[in-house]
Amino acid sequence: MFFAERKDPNAKVIQQQIRDEANEMIADRKLFEVLMVDRGGKITEGSRSNVFFVKNDVFYTAPESMVLIGITRQEVLDCLKVLGLEVVEEAVAAAEIGLFDAAFITGTSPKVLPVRLVGRQRFQVEASCVKKLMNAYDQLIVNYVRDAKR
Question: Is the pTM higher than 0.85?
Answer without folding.
Answer: yes
